[in-house]
Amino acid sequence: DIQMTQSPSTLSASVGDRVTITCRTSQTINNYLAWYQQKPGQAPKFLIYRASSLETGVPSRFSGSGTGTEFTLTISSLQPDDFATYYCQQYDTYPYNFGQGTKLEIK
Amino acid sequence: EVQLVEAGGGVVQPGGSLRLSCAASGFTFSSYWMNWVRQAPGKGLEWVGNIKQDGSETHYMDSVKGRFTISRDNAKNLLYLQMNSLKVEDTAVYYCARGSAYWGQGTLVAVSS
């Protein structure tokens, strides 16, 4: 199985900050990596696919990058609505594992 | 509008069985792979498995292989998750999802004696 490692587990930041979350995979995944945002009591929201392609309707302050085994999600200027938990998921090889999540908190 | 509505969750004893369903609407159900994802209370997301458009291919996470079965009825736009030999660690909210983009609101399964 492909192991997924997200860092940090928790991130404290302020409105307006630029933040980056990292996802490392234990083997290459042909950039088949997705990012999700989840708020308490809600289903996950799909943000990015194929490592860097923004899903329709997702604000442009979100961006994804990376290749090989290291990927990042960047929020260029944090808005109040962005405080949530973020997950990466690889969908190259079964099982389609998720990272353990990064909780983005208000500083 | 794409809608996915899960049903069938509840409380079940260890070793018991439960069948979840997911009613799909707003899209051509038979054209998409469908997924089940779960989330234990206070924990992260865990991919459970998926099924091909015609039901001819399924994949599962290791810990549910041989206990869970995913199936679908394309005539009724329904996705199923049959869960047998349930364990306490299967306690979670179970989501159905169309690919990555569309998710239901989830149904809670609690395995407890």
Q: Radius of gyration of chain A from the CA trace?
A: 13 Å
Distance between the termini of chain B: 40 Å
Uncertain segments of chain A are none
What share of the residues of chain A does DSSP label as strand, in percent? over 45%
The structure class of chain B reads mainly beta
Most extensive chain-chain interface? A-B, 21 and 20 residues
Radius of gyration of chain B: 13 Å
> Count the helices of chain A. How many?
0
Principal-axes geometry of chain B comes out as globular
Task: Give a brief description.
The complex is a heterodimer of chains A (107) and B (113). Chain A has 107 residues and is mostly beta strands. Chain A has strands at residues 4-7, 10-13, 19-25, 33-38, 45-49, 53-54, 62-67, 70-75, 85-90, 102-106.
For this entry, give a set of tags.
heterodimer, A: 107 residues, mainly beta, B: 113 residues, 4-stranded antiparallel β-sheet, 11 strands, 0% helix
